[in-house]
Design goal:
CATH topology: Alpha-D-Glucose-1,6-Bisphosphate, Chain A, domain 4
Largest sheet: 7 strands, antiparallel
Number of helices: 4
Helix content: 25-40%
Strand order of the largest sheet: 1-7-6-5-4-3-2
CATH architecture: 2-Layer Sandwich
CATH class: Alpha Beta
Strand content: 35-45%
Number of domains: 1
Order of helices and strands: EHHEEEEEEHH
Radius of gyration: 16 Å
CATH superfamily: START domain
Distance between the termini: 59 Å
Number of strands: 7
């Protein structure tokens, strides 16, 4: 069975800021873990064939970037250390909308519905943390010149 996760969300930021949040290790380290109490370390070589490693306390996920199309699309493999599971695939599609940026996150390739449900439990709080990060008001360079 190939269960999947789909999260369709409008984020309160420009497409460039959302793409940066997905591709800059310093920003990923601020939201890319469902549990804010865990120490989070991120390494990301964001290019086709580049690798990433995310350490969430004792939990480590790693993969390879399969598609990198700034600022609209990012696809990468996903594999937890210490498991025999086959890698799954995450696709992030971004598009500009009136209220910000529409993010469609699709995570596919799970062995079963239970595995997908467990990952959904991780993605939901992560996306909330992403929304919080993007909701922080950014300085307006034009205002500094006034």
């Amino acid at each position: 069975m190939d269960a999947e996760i789909r999260i369709d969300r409008v984020l309160p930021a420009t497409i460039g800021r959302v793409y940066d949040a997905w591709t800059r290790a310093d920003l990923l380290a601020r939201w890319y873990c469902p549990n804010p109490a865990l120490e989070l370390k991120v390494q990301a070589d964001v290019r086709v064939g580049g690798d990433y490693v995310v350490e969430m306390g004792p939990h480590v996920v790693r993969g390879t970037y399969l598609e990198v199309e700034p600022p609209h699309r990012l696809t990468f493999s996903w594999k937890w250390d210490g498991t025999d599971d086959e890698p799954t695939k995450v696709e992030v599609e971004l598009s500009e909308v009136a209220d910000g940026t529409r993010m469609l996150l699709t995570h596919t390739g799970f062995a079963d519905a239970e595995d997908a449900a467990n990952h959904q439990l991780g993605w939901d709080p992560e996306v909330l943390r992403l929304v919080e990060l993007l909701s922080v008001r950014q300085p307006d360079p034009a205002a500094d010149r006034g």
